[in-house]
Structures are given as C-alpha cells and as structure tokens.
Amino acid sequence: MPRNFTTLAYAIPSMALALVSGCVEGSRSVRLNSTGSLQTVIEYKAEGPTNLAMFQYSVVESQGARHLLREQIGKIKRTLIDLAWSDAGEEHYVTWEHAMGINCECWEYVIPVNRAKRGYGYLHHPGCYNIVTVRKSKRPIPIGPMPPPDILLLPQAGAH
Prior knowledge:
Layout lengths: L7 H14 L2 E2 L1 E4 L7 E10 L7 E8 L3 E8 L3 E5 L2 E4 L2 E10 L2 E11 L6 E6 L4 E6 L2 E6 L8 E5 L5
Antiparallel strand pairs: 1-8, 2-6, 3-4, 3-13, 4-5, 5-6, 7-8, 8-9, 9-10, 10-13, 11-12
C-alpha cells in the first residue's frame, strides 16, 4: 500500500523551485502541445492516498528505440524523464533535484516490461538515498530498506 503523502505538499513546490533554478537531473520540461517524434507505448493512471487524477504518465518511444517516461500534470506542465535503465524485467525512470551539492527529492518510477502489470512511483526523501553510477547510469540507492511505493501506476486500455 502506498505511503502517506505528508511530504507531497513540500515535494511539489520544491520540484517547481528546482525546475526554475535549473537544479533538476534526469528530466526536462516540454511544451504541452509538443509531441515531436514521440510515439505512446502505454498510458498509466496514477493512484495514491491523495487526489492524483491530474497526473498522467505515458511510456513513450523516441525515434523508434529509446523509451522515456512522460509525466503530465493536467494542463499545467509536461515533463520528459529521460534518465532510465532496465533490469530484471523492469524499466526505471528517475529524476531528482539538487541544490548546493545536496540531493533533494528524488522520484523513481518502476514500469514492468510486461505492460499489463502495474508500475510504481517512489519518492526518495533528502538524506535517505545516494546517487551512484552503475553501468554508466546514475541511480538513486536508498540508505536502508527500499521504501514502499508512494503511487501506483495502473495501465490503461490498450496495454501491451
């Protein structure tokens, strides 16, 4: 079961501040009406202990090969998360903020290669993870046990 979102009220403004100041890694903001050469592979509905109805997630394919995770918050913001790696039948997408050499919030999304299965979103809090490079890819490594998921990503019709 997802964790309580007691820090979500802090996490969203914190991410917005980091986006403005340019201290975000693993993702970039894109125009709401831009699709470019991205093809949607599957869409996910987010569920959690708070109202996540305005959050939409899609695995998209870039130029026929590389997968990215697109996060859209209603008609407010669209982000492409392009820092990704695969292991054990799952694709991981991660983005985090940092300021003055300190890692802030980090979101990690885990999407099964079997698109009919649900995915998960984890919020790693400051001081509870380290960023390490594994096989040329930066990854968050929790300090201590992996936290339970904060959100569920439920595949929508047409999952493959």
